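The instructor's notes for this session suggest beginning with a concrete chain rather than abstract definitions. Hand out the sequence below and ask the class to guess, before any prediction is shown, which regions might be ordered.
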Amino acid sequence: MSSADTTKTVLVAGAANLVLAFAKILAGALAGSSAMLAEGAHSIGDTPQGDA
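After discussion, reveal the predicted structure:
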């Protein structure tokens, strides 16, 4: 797998993870669920942050 393919894969996975994180946060806010809000925060924490 080339470096460009790896980069693309990481970017797509990161974007998908952020979409799911914000969906969880929205659902948690609408439902008043602290557990779902925590899941959203956890998903954001799992998102790749770049070349760290």
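Then share the key points. DSSP finds two helices and no strands in the chain. Residues 35 and 41 are 10 Å apart (CA to CA).
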